[in-house]
Please model this.
Amino acid sequence: MSKKLSITDILIIIFALVLSIALFYNAQSNTSNTVKIQCNGTTYLYNLDTDRDIHLTGAIGDVLIRIEDSRVWIIESSCKNKICLKMKKVDKNGGFIACIPNKVLITVETKDEVVIDDISR
Model:
C-alpha cells in the first residue's frame, strides 16, 4: 500500500529544508568575534578572523598590535617596562591586554550566546 506525496506534503518538506538551512547560516553568522581596542579615548573595532597589523599612537608613543590566527597581542610598544608585550595572547575565550602608559586596552567581544543549563548555589 503505497501513497503518493501530495502537494501539501512537498511544500511542508521544502519549507522545513529552507528553514533548517536559514537557521544554520544564521547560527554561523552570530559567532563572529570583534577585537575592541581603546586608545586615548577612541575605540577601534576589528574582525578577529582577519589577520592584520595595527599601528596606533598611544599617550606616550607608538603601539603595534597584531591580529593573527584568531588571536590578538601587542608586538611593539614605546612604554618603558614592556609588560604589555609579555601578556598572554587574547582570543575569543576572553581576557585583555593593557598598556597603561600608552592608555591602550585590548579586548575581544564575542557574539556567542551563553547558555546556562544549571545554577549552583
